[in-house]
């Protein structure tokens, strides 16, 4: 491909020089200037100025006019970069999009019993179906589009079949109003027999009873569990459990055996389980909650014990069993001890366990024999950074269905047959003209400011020169203890062909290195996330992966905190930053569940620290890197007012000439932005690196 190698080719540079002149003029003349108001927030020991507080009223005429002006300003740049945009998509044409990554494979929903339940697509709608285990006679139980009726934007959130397999329950959510309803129908006739409003999750307690969690819109979480008898008024439902802590939430699940209902209480740093069977009137505690202690409990058919996956005295997790009547820690029997690999998941099958582990950017599956403890690896995959995504485990026929994901290999779907130790490839996505042998992948540990190794993946074309002249894109998250798992991005080959070095960063605050890794980048340690990013950027320059003037970073959601901190604290380290639906104002957070992640503003000590790192509060008079913000107006997870306020404050304080651009998708939410309407982030990078912005 000769679109771009390491920089724009000389024969097209004059075209883009003209574009750059027009863009610079547009940026200078049309950048919106937001009004300021004298607003102060009173917090413990502090009075905090917030001149753009008025933007929090997203329905106001002033805010809507401001969004309109910002979008118009960015559209000028978008039009002026049309030629570069065409060049980028021409580069993508060299590696056409892969074949669909979610084929119509039958995804089993309920393995036990006489039926197999599965989902499949029919046109634009999702069908839920079943068939006898030994027959191909299919029955459509639910047509999601018909179930949503007149909802234009809807999502099928949850579907479960009753124990006698005669009734189905499903939750349909309206994306526009964010309302969710539980509908219960007969399987045979599709007759609606009950309807419950405002339901987040549910389980079948028996054939006539469901347990469910309603949504507390004021606190933005579920804190209660109710029992509902089908056919009775919802107003008469019995409250089984109420969570007093406002920084925790509850969920309700069924055990694998179907004998127990789990009530799961959790926040970002602990979990607690309570259990309930048909003979109990009050939920019983499995193990008491404690900060930093997470666990998952399970019960299997014919078992007389509970099985617990926990990080108690084991940061990488261990797997134990304990008697149902003797649950205390001194009765625990260790089945799988802690190791240097993180233990992610364990499930029972006949004569053994399916075990998922994570280490050094790779997620692997293996079978552990229950008696001999002998281990059998599934797949033997060799890519240096890969992820195995479990789709389903059929415990009857002992089949594991999974998707293999790698940063350098497009998705492959497999069935593994435990009984015969046979791996069957079901479907493989293909990217034309792409050869993974044309790219180099390295897994490195980069020392941070405090000499702690930070794991990174570095990928680049085999013809990219390691002389410090290349362009680098860092991908950053580092929040909520989430593992930043490697996956294939069909845009990446074109960027690598244009001379980019791609760097995926597992900075502190994420979960790739275990519980301690999460804690070390959260709350009173949140600055470590920014220090890790800076250390990686400096490493890339020092090791000649990239030019120190051409290192770019991108992040989304909780990753906005990391890159917002970097922009304020180390404005010269990154050439540019792109943020999608970013978290930027930790003082704005009203959800107490989030306080465990970013700090409690009602605690004087924690507030002092939050005021030191919160991106919005720390914007100052200085030259900032070029920044592009993408956000959805309908985002409920991170309200777009945080982005609006940040952009306004940045533009008012930026003493340099780098652009600060904002695109707001008025129909977008936290998980969906309509990118065709927005400035392409890759085009923004290319324009930035070639002096056009």
Task: Lay out the secondary structure.
Elements: H1 13-30, E1 40-43, E2 46-49, H2 61-80, H3 82-93, E3 115-122, E4 125-132, E5 139-143, H4 144-148, E6 154-161, E7 167-174, E8 180-186, E9 192-197, E10 199-206, E11 209-214, E12 224-229, E13 238-242, E14 249-254, E15 261-266, E16 271-276, E17 284-285, E18 295-298, E19 305-310, E20 318-323, E21 333-336, E22 342-349, E23 352-359, E24 362-369, E25 375-377, E26 386-394, E27 399-406, E28 412-417, E29 422-428, E30 439-447, E31 453-461, E32 471-476, H5 492-497, E33 500-505, H6 515-519, H7 527-542, E34 551-556, H8 559-569, E35 576-580, H9 592-598, H10 604-613, E36 626-632, H11 641-653, E37 660-665, H12 681-689
Summary of the model, kept short:
19% of the residues lie in helices and 34% in strands. The protein has 12 helices and 37 strands.
Structural write-up:
- With 693 residues, this protein is α+β, with helices and mostly antiparallel strands.
- Helices cover 19% and strands 34% of the residues.
- The chain has twelve helices and 37 strands.
- It has an eight-stranded mixed β-sheet, sandwiched between helices. It has a four-stranded antiparallel β-sheet with strand order 6-7-8-9.
- It starts with 12 loop residues before the first helix and ends with a helix.
């Amino acid at each position: 491909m000769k679109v771009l190698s390491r920089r724009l080719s000389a024969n097209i540079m004059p075209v883009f020089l003209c574009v750059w002149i027009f863009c610079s003029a547009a940026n200078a003349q049309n950048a919106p200037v937001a009004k300021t108001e004298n607003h102060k927030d009173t917090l413990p020991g502090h009075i905090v100025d917030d001149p753009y507080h008025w933007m929090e009223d997203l329905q106001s005429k002033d805010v809507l006019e401001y969004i309109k002006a910002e979008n118009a300003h960015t559209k000028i740049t978008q039009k002026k970069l049309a030629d570069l945009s065409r060049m980028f998509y021409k580069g993508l044409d060299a590696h056409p999009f892969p074949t669909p990554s979610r084929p119509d494979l039958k995804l089993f929903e309920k393995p036990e019993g006489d039926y197999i339940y599965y989902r499949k697509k029919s046109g634009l709608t999702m069908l839920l179906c079943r068939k006898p285990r030994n027959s191909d006679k299919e029955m459509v139980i639910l047509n999601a589009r018909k179930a949503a009726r007149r909802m234009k934007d809807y999502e099928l959130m949850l579907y479960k079949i009753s124990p006698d397999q005669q009734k189905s329950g499903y939750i349909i959510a309206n994306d526009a109003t964010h309302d969710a309803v539980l509908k219960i129908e007969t399987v045979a006739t599709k007759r609606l027999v009950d309807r419950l409003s405002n339901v987040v999750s549910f389980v079948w307690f028996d054939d006539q009873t469901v347990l469910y969690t309603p949504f507390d819109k004021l606190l933005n979480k579920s804190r209660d569990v109710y029992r509902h008898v089908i056919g009775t008024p919802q107003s008469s439902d019995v409250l089984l459990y109420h969570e007093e802590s406002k920084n925790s939430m509850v969920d309700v699940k069924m055990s694998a055996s179907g004998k127990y209902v789990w009530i799961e209480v959790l926040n970002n740093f602990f979990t607690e389980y309570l259990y309930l069977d048909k003979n109990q009137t009050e939920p019983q505690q499995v193990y008491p909650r404690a900060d930093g202690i997470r666990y998952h409990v399970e019960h299997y058919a014919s078992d007389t014990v509970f099985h617990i996956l926990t990080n108690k005295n084991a940061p990488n997790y261990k797997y134990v069993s304990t008697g149902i009547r003797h649950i205390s820690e001194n009765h625990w029997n260790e089945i799988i001890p802690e190791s240097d690999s993180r233990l992610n998941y364990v499930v029972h099958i006949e004569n053994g366990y399916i075990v998922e582990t994570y280490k050094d950017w790779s997620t692997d599956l293996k079978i552990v024999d229950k008696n001999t403890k002998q281990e059998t690896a599934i797949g033997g995959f060799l890519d240096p950074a890969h992820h195995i995504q479990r789709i389903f485990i059929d415990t009857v026929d002992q089949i594991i269905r999974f998707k293999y994901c790698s940063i350098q290999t497009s998705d492959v779907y497999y069935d593994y047959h435990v009984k015969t130790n046979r791996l069957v490839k079901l479907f493989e996505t293909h990217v034309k003209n792409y050869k993974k042998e044309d790219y180099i992948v390295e897994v490195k540990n980069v020392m941070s400011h405090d000499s702690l190794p930070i794991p990174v993946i570095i990928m680049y074309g085999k013809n990219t020169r390691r002389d410090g002249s290349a362009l680098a894109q860092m991908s950053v998250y580092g929040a909520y203890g989430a593992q930043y798992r490697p996956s294939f991005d069909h845009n990446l080959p074109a960027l690598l062909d244009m001379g980019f070095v791609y760097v995926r960063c597992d900075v502190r605050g994420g979960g790739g290195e275990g519980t301690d890794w999460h804690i070390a980048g959260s709350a009173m340690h949140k600055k470590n996330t920014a220090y890790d990013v800076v250390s990686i950027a400096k490493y890339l320059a020092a090791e000649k992966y990239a030019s120190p003037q051409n290192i770019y970073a991108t992040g989304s959601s909780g990753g906005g905190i990391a890159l917002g901190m970097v922009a304020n604290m180390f404005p010269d380290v990154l050439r540019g930053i792109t943020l999608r639906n970013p978290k930027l104002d930790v003082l704005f957070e009203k959800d107490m569940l989030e306080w465990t992640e970013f700090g409690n503003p009602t605690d004087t000590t924690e507030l002092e620290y939050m005021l030191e790192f919160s991106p919005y509060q720390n914007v100052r008079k200085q030259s900032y890197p070029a920044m592009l913000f993408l956000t959805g107006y309908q985002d409920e997870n991170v309200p777009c007012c945080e982005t609006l306020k940040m952009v306004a404050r940045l533009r008012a304080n930026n003493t340099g000439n780098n652009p600060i651009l904002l695109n707001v998708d008025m129909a977008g939410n936290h998980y969906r932005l309509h990118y065709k309407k927005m400035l392409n982030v890759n085009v923004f990078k290319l324009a930035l690196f070639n002096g056009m912005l």
